[in-house]
Amino acid sequence: MARLRPADAIRLATGGLRARRVRSALSALGIAIAVAAVVAVLGIARSTQADLLTQLGEQGNLLTVASAESVNGRGVPLPLSAEPMIARIPPVRTVTAVATVENVSVRRSRAIPAVQTGGMNVLAAEPSLPAALSVQPLLGRFLDGTAEHYPVTVLGFEAARILGIGSLAAPTQILLGEHWFTVAGVLAPVAVAPEIDLAALITFGQAGTVFGRTAGPSRIYLRADPDQVAAVAAVLTATTVPDGAGDVQVRRPSDLLVARIAAKGAFVGLFLGLGGVALLIAGVGIANIMVISVLERRGEIGLRRALGARRRHVAAQFLLESTLLATIGGVLGIGLGVLATAVAARLGGNPVAIPPVALAAGLGAALLAGALAGLYPAIRAARLSPVEALRSVG
Amino acid sequence: MTTAVLELSGVGKTYPAPSTVTALDGIDLVIGAGETVAITGASGAGKSTLLSILGTLERPTRGTVRIAGADVSALSDPELSDVRATRLGFVFQQFFLLEHLSVLDNVATGLLYRGVPARARRERAAEALYEVGLADRIGHRAGQLSGGERQRVAIARAIAGRPAVLLADEPTGNLDSATGAEITALLAGLADGDTTVVLITHNADVAAAMRRQVHLSDGRIVRDTGGES
């Protein structure tokens, strides 16, 4: 009874690859590069998205209420009663308000023209802002009670960058309009509220005493119970302007994050497609060398048939060889892909997040490519008549 | 009279179009256990076809072939593989050694398709190498051997499974005459161990070393010095 032990079949396949080292290595390299591309694309995408996804999870219950702009582009303030009214909606957990202080420039010194705003503006904010927006000061601290009485400001992340303030080790002052304010802190970036990033924040008290801004807030941020977000959003307009006088915009800033993630997803799809094409090419490469290998090894095939190998033993040998080749390439490619992801994440300052599905997909795709590539050569080898195979060798 | 291990009756082989050559025509041949047979004849006389049919590598178009009493014409392709794995051993002019394997592993390959575990294969291979006088070459690569040594390895591979029949296709064709004589003597000696040896040769000295000579011409047996049938 002719039979081939599984362990012997694997030994045959490894032996076949070892006998043609350079060729095997080059073919495996093709698969490795393709798999590395797939793993790196998935890994890098996941790493950059991990940040956004975390924020999305944290920010999904954030809502904003802003005054609609009037025809002249000026913001119409919200009623002063709006914030306490919103705070009374039961599922609302935290609420904070900001008010735009119009026509006040943010500068480092008087040497800079006031018209050069750099896109920055002055916002009056409440001490509850860091809690409501889940943001921490990168440097220094946020506005507290005493800041109501002193010219103190906290800068948004981008504003600090534009003004060139990287450290608060030495007392730092900036010019808001014509008044000097001491920088007490710098906030971390707030992805869901980019307007904060570009602002110099002062207290409502200072906004009133220094700039005469006493009208209601221009924007209110609130957090609701995560499962009540839609219900809260539905009543926000009526709560803010109960008499229906004036128009307000209710937004859910996390929609912005969803859009950003979707945009990145589109690129991931594109690059994955390219990775798939690379894998296809590598698979064709393996098929090619396996066909050549079958032609070169007709004598060996004939000998094995003479020694009692069945057709399927011969087919199994070549199929295993190509699958093994692709598996080696796949494992190598996963290593390269993980390395590329780690390097990219390090450079981009993101956490390294490699989805397990990327590893499984990379290896699975390599296995599939190897098996498909080996199928035709294996069938050819098995169909070879032993007599012709033996005679073909001089 | 010994028992017949190979029996051919009315065997013919005609290759299909486009060649439509009749390589064998009405071969009746009985070979007993332990015989040594040389098949001779001019090129194209049908020697190789006859050996392939004896080795179940090819099926005849007419007639019946019995190996150890069993009619092989009724067997499927996998069953023929089984017959080759268990009953037949092959030696070729081109040796067909696997260059990347050691001498020992080349010989052990002879038992690969019997499902013999690796350790037992190697033990048996070492014995076979001792029998052909190559015990000192066990660890060498096949590529490091001389032609005569290579053919000895091939013979060891063929006899490692103790086949009933050893079929050799021009075993000395690629060797010089002195080395060829050694190989011939080795093959002739195998019959003492009850192995039937059938070889094809052009060489009269090799043929003379076998106890029986069968001469083919145009696909027919024209002379048979043995003939227990």
From TrEMBL, chain A:
Keywords: Cell membrane, Membrane, Transmembrane, Transmembrane helix. It comes from Paractinoplanes tereljensis. GO terms for cellular component: plasma membrane. GO terms for molecular function: transmembrane transporter activity. It holds the Pfam family FtsX. Residues 24-237 form the MacB-like periplasmic core domain. PANTHER family: ABC TRANSPORTER PERMEASE YTRF (PTHR30572:SF4), MEMBRANE COMPONENT OF TRANSPORTER-RELATED (PTHR30572). The chain crosses the membrane at residues 25-45, 266-295, 316-345, 357-376. This is ABC transporter permease. It comes from the Bacteria. It is a multi-pass membrane protein. InterPro entries: ABC3_permease_C, MacB_PCD, Macrolide_Exporter_MacB. Residues 275-386 form the ABC3 transporter permease C-terminal domain. It is found in: Cell membrane. The lineage of its organism: Bacteria, Bacillati, Actinomycetota, Actinomycetes, Micromonosporales. Coiled coil: none annotated.
TrEMBL record, chain B:
Residues 6-229 form the ABC transporter domain. GO terms for molecular function: ATP binding; ATP hydrolysis activity; transmembrane transporter activity. Keywords: ATP-binding, Nucleotide-binding, Transport. One of its GO terms (cellular component) is plasma membrane. Gene3D superfamilies: P-loop containing nucleotide triphosphate hydrolases. It comes from the Bacteria. The keyword Oxidoreductase does not apply. PANTHER family: ABC TRANSPORTER ABCH.1, IMPORT ATP-BINDING PROTEIN. This is Peptide ABC transporter ATP-binding protein. It comes from Paractinoplanes tereljensis.
